[in-house]
Amino acid sequence: QNSDVETELDALVVGSGFGGIYACFSLRKLGLNFACIEKAGDVGGTWYWNRYPGAMSDTHSHLYRFSFDEEDYKNYPFTHNYLYQAEILSYLEHVVERHDLRKYIQFNSEMRSAVFEEGSNRWRVTVHTGHVFVVRYLISAMGLLSQPVYPDIPGLHDFKGTLVHTATWKQDLDLRDKRVALIGTGSTGVQVTTKIASEVGSLSCFIRHPQYVVPAGYREFPAKQRDEINSNFSAYWDNVNRSMVAFGFEESTRSFASATPEERERVFEKLWDDGNGFWFMLGGFNDIATNPEANAFAADFVRRKIHEIVRDPEKARVLTPHDYYARRPICGNSYYEQFNRDNVHVVDVKENPITAVTGRGITTADGVEREFDAIILATGFDALDGNYTRLHIRGRRGETIKDHWSRSVTSFGGVMVSGFPNFFMVLGPQSPFANNPPVIETQVELIMAVIERSETLGKKTSSGHGQHAGVVEPTPEAESDWARRCEVGVEGSLFKKTSSWIFGANVAGKVFATRFFFPGLRPYREFIESSIREGWKGLVFT
Ligand code: NA7
């Protein structure tokens, strides 16, 4: 064994975003010997990479943060109801400094492979530099949206101007007065549009699949509201953790059918004025995502708004979605209003697809070539399992995670996989579809409870030998059971009928699978609590 290139530890954390930071904090609390490796040059994860103009979280500020540090929660300043990327990144840096976690993190270190050695029950993790970590517990906090997708357009890399994916933004990129093309109209494309439309020379949005975009409602956060939340901290967070999407609003229990046409109109008008995508989908009625009639009403409401706001009927036509309102809900700051600017154009690439990128610009099926100085790809991510299958992660009997997920993408509670002992994921596939920080806290706390129990049992069985060889993994049955719960949870949902990254539809050849637990955070936490109560049902500790 060469100690220069091998480090033996109890645990290794991969990634230093919200998940990795909390995992480091928690491992230290458990008293384990650990390190964290991070591909980037600093902490932040998603918020380190996604520095594109307009990048912000669409969760309200008071819920896009940790709750584990009550004092910090109550005091860390924010001014508005949403946080932009730079603010979130500063916050995460602050948490790392406050808890003195930086010393555990090795930056510019990308995990290339992780192999479970059955004889020693250890993970052998190789970093791109050749350095190897030999650890008992491997905790992946690589994020759920971290592997950018580049569209398969002929000539893409022949472009002579600036080609940039939003997730690898070039900090010195100056778009002022430039002719800019934007491909992609998901959350990211919408945020980019609202920020740069007024700054660039021209902006041409290539729209294949327009989405329903409601206002974000960006405004100052009332000090009084913050005081109220702070003085009811425990009860407030208890409510958040007992809600479905953990967005801090009251999720409606009322059916669409119970309201008169006038009431429906009033309800959506108020939701539109208040802002927020999740709120719009879940705050008015409880069946927008399941009842086609309710969904059609909400969709039609947004379509009417588009035609009221966008003055040019051709632009309005291209911006109007026609499928179900059942993708990840999107909101933006005056998105449709941007299209009333003379310098903002739309190109309908559903009717007239992109055929190639040339040295000068983009050509479409009608033979037209449009010239640009910059092309922005807001084309999304190979989400969830995509972060894992690109790496060589090998569990028992030589099975890789890619093999494991070749037919269906399943896990135990989004955190563990059978045949991959002592391997944990934060926001792995089949995690709750909800605001991420509370999901992350829940999952990291679950992972730590599992590790703690494994440690205790390991110590007991190996007393006298100085060995801590606890091994824990879910049974295949427990994994199938969770997968079944995920399937049941999405039954009847219009999300399943609408192609998007949520089911893997955005990446060619990716398995169509239910990658989230749609019932949300409350039933997720109840499932965990009942599994623990029933003697850690589903997990085998050896
Ligand atoms: P999304 O939501 O996956 O959106 C990607 C967009 O890129 C979407 O509009 C795609 O259109 C479009 N796209 C991809 N390839 C092409 C080509 N070849 N031509 C035209 N348009 C294309 O990614 P985001 O980054 O916006 O958001 C991902 C999540 O990150 C988001 O939900 C938040 O949770 C944060 P399509 O719909 O496939 O027609």
Helix content: 25-40%
Poorly predicted residue ranges: none
Helix segment count? Answer: 16
Shape, per Cα inertia axes: globular
Cofactors and ligands present? ligand NA7
GO molecular function: flavin adenine dinucleotide binding; N,N-dimethylaniline monooxygenase activity; NADP binding
Keywords: FAD, Flavoprotein, NADP, Oxidoreductase
Organism: Knufia peltigerae
InterPro entries: FAD-binding_Monooxygenases, FAD/NAD-bd_sf, Flavin_mOase-like
SSE layout and pairing:
Layout: E1 6-14, H1 18-30, E2 34-37, H2 46-49, H3 70-75, H4 85-98, E3 105-106, E4 111-117, E5 122-127, E6 132-140, E7 162-165, E8 179-183, H5 187-196, E9 202-207, E10 213-215, H6 223-231, H7 233-241, H8 261-274, H9 277-282, H10 292-309, H11 313-319, E11 330-332, E12 344-348, E13 354-357, E14 361-364, E15 369-371, E16 374-377, H12 386-389, E17 392-394, H13 401-404, E18 423-425, E19 431-432, H14 436-461, E20 472-474, H15 476-490, E21 516-517, H16 521-533, E22 539-541
Parallel strand pairs: 1-2, 1-6, 2-3, 4-17, 6-18, 7-16, 8-9, 8-16, 9-12, 10-11, 19-21
Antiparallel strand pairs: 4-5, 5-6, 13-14, 14-15, 20-22
Helix pairs in contact: 1-14
